[in-house]
């Protein structure tokens, strides 16, 4: 598996010494353990990213483990969505599906024997018991059948429950600080369900131990699972990993970010044309920040600066404007050809250009993208900005009619249109000369003619330099479009 940031990382390490050289933690092993639902919520992606950044910044190991014991349907596609999403963002894993590793298999559905052996271990020391109540429809954390036998192995239809030792669980979370829980509230929860499958809490502990995970980094929605898991670690006599529970990601209304807020999954943002390094940059800043002021961080810099200890405890709000801003900064780093390819993809999708466009169209797109400069901030935006270059029907919003209603502006526009069609050359200097001298001849300042021309050609009041815009629209087309706009908008007083 290729490691796209390896080189950049080495370079940046030798150049700056922001982090103390070498590892802070010993032999870091972390994992991202998604359930394959097929939906990559940005919160989960952020969890994966913090694990990955931590592993890479500590020269540790990043594991991908698929927690599919609960999933009844075929998980192939959902797993693909996860692996593809991570790869798109630029994250690689050292152990997991596709790459294997010494602690596999990396699908929980293939680790069933391990869970059963682990359950037997706890049964043998009376830390668990076989329960004959049907779990369905009853309190999942209390046995009511009274048949609490530890001696037997579970038979078909029997569950295995953990024998809650009572007392307290106290632990120090890397992000949340010291936390303590009364154990009795968790009851004798089920470890192995009556259908033989392990519960999340049980399989998670067995696997994290077997895979020698040193730090569990996950969303704080799992906080109440942690004492259940720590009780298990203690019952087994295992060392507990460090826990770091990441704060939630909220929408702009302060509610947990969800589909209701529009885009909430990685796919949504990919579809809109955000680029991976910007997405990674933005997600990293959701709950974490580097020591300096600078928010613009390449993947290599993120690795260099990332410190788990700097993760904030308070929830962060998803701010799409900030993502757009970062995306435009990362876009600037891409060569013109690549930005034009991104634009082309969205223009094709919008039906404005053909997928098998020729050289002329691709270089026309390149010219437009060059002219737009930093105004073109993410892929989908080109459809709005580019519409007037690729379609002929420019409709002028009634709110903008005032730009084209005045008699002297209309006269100047008609005259400019005539001079456009008759021009011998078609470059920006010529266009500028025509606009300025026409305005003068008509006793106008240049500004009203410049604004009028822009509205007539694009139906907008903002965009690239007017002379560039006219040039890109084209000589005869610009003239025709001015005439069309004057027909569309009646003169004032009519
Ligand atoms: N499968 C769990 C989830 O997707 C993993 C939680 C954990 O990291 O322990 O939420």
Fold blueprint:
Blueprint: H1 6-15, E1 29-32, H2 42-57, E2 61-64, H3 76-89, H4 112-124, E3 128-131, E4 159-162, E5 168-173, E6 177-182, E7 190-192, H5 200-210, E8 215-219, H6 225-236, E9 242-246, E10 249-250, H7 266-272, H8 276-284, H9 299-305, E11 316-317, H10 320-332, H11 336-349, H12 359-372, H13 381-390, H14 402-405, H15 407-422, H16 428-441, H17 446-458, H18 466-473, H19 475-488
Parallel strand pairs: 1-2, 8-9, 10-11
Antiparallel strand pairs: 3-4, 4-7, 5-6
Helix pairs in contact: 1-9, 2-9, 5-6, 8-10, 11-12, 15-16, 15-17, 15-19, 16-18, 17-18, 17-19
The chain binds glutamic acid.
Question: What would you note in describing this structure?
Answer:
With 494 residues, the protein is mainly α. It has three domains: 4-249, HUPs (Rossmann fold), CATH 3.40.50.620; 334-385; 398-488, Arc Repressor Mutant, subunit A (Orthogonal Bundle). Helices cover 44% and strands 9% of the residues. It contains 19 helices and eleven strands. The protein has helices spanning 6-15, 42-57, 76-89, 112-124, 200-210, 225-236, 266-272, 276-284, 299-305, 320-332, 336-349, 359-372, 381-390, 402-405, 407-422, 428-441, 446-458, 466-473, 475-488, and strands at 29-32, 61-64, 128-131, 159-162, 168-173, 177-182, 190-192, 215-219, 242-246, 249-250, 316-317. A three-stranded antiparallel beta sheet has the order 3-4-7. Strands 1-2 form a two-stranded parallel sheet. A two-stranded antiparallel ribbon has the order 5-6. A hairpin with a 3-residue loop joins β5 and β6. The termini are far apart. Mean pLDDT is 90; it is low at 1-22. It binds glutamic acid (GLU). The site of glutamic acid has 7 residues, from loops.
């Amino acid at each position: 598996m290729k490691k796209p940031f390896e080189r950049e990382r080495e370079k940046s390490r030798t150049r700056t010494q922001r982090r103390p050289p070498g590892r802070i933690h010993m032999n870091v092993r972390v994992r991202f353990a998604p359930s394959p639902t097929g939906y990559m919520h940005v919160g989960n992606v952020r969890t994966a990213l913090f694990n990955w950044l931590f592993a890479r910044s500590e020269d540790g190991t990043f594991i991908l483990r698929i927690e599919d014991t609960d999933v009844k349907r075929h998980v192939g596609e959902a797993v693909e969505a996860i692996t593809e999403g991570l790869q798109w963002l630029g994250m690689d894993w050292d152990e997991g599906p596709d790459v294997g590793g010494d602690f596999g298999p990396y699908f929980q559905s293939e680790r069933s024997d391990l869970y059963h052996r682990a359950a037997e271990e706890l049964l043998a020391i009376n830390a668990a018991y076989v329960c004959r109540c049907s779990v369905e429809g009853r309190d999942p954390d209390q046995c009511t059948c009274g048949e609490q036998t530890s001696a037997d192995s579970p038979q078909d239809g029997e569950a295995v429950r953990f024998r809650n030792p009572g007392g307290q669980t106290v632990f120090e979370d890397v992000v949340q600080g010291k936390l303590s829980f009364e154990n009795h509230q968790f009851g004798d929860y089920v470890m192995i369900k009556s259908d033989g499958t392990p519960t999340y809490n049980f399989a998670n502990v067995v696997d994290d131990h077997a895979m020698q995970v040193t730090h569990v980094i996950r969303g704080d929605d799992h906080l109440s699972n942690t004492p259940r898991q720590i009780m298990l670690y203690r019952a087994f006599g295992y060392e507990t990993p460090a826990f770091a529970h990441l704060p939630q990601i909220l929408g702009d209304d302060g509610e947990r970010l969800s589909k209701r807020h529009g885009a909430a999954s990685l796919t949504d943002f990919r579809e809109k044309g955000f680029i991976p390094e910007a997405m990674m940059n933005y997600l990293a800043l959701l709950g974490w920040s580097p020591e300096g002021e600078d928010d613009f961080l390449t993947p290599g810099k993120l690795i260099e600066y990332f410190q788990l200890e700097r993760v904030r405890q308070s929830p962060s709000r998803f701010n799409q404007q900030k993502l757009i801003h970062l995306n435009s900064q990362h876009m600037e780093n891409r060569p013109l050809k690549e930005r034009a390819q991104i634009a082309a993809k969205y223009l094709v999708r919008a039906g404005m250009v053909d997928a098998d466009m020729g050289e002329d169209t691709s270089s026309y797109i390149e010219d437009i993208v060059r002219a737009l400069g930093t105004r073109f901030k993410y892929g989908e935006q080109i459809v709005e900005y580019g519409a007037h270059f690729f379609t002929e029907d420019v409709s002028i919003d009634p709110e903008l009619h005032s730009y084209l209603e005045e008699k002297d502006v209309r006269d100047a526009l008609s005259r400019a249109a005539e001079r456009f069609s008759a021009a011998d050359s078609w470059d920006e200097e010529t266009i500028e000369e025509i606009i300025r001298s026409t305005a003068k001849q008509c006793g106008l300042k240049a500004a009203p003619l410049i604004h009028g021309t822009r509205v007539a050609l694009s139906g907008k009041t903002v965009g690239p330099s007017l002379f560039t815009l006219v040039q890109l629209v084209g000589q005869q087309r610009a003239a025709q479009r001015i005439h069309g706009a004057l027909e569309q908008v009646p003169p004032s007083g009519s």
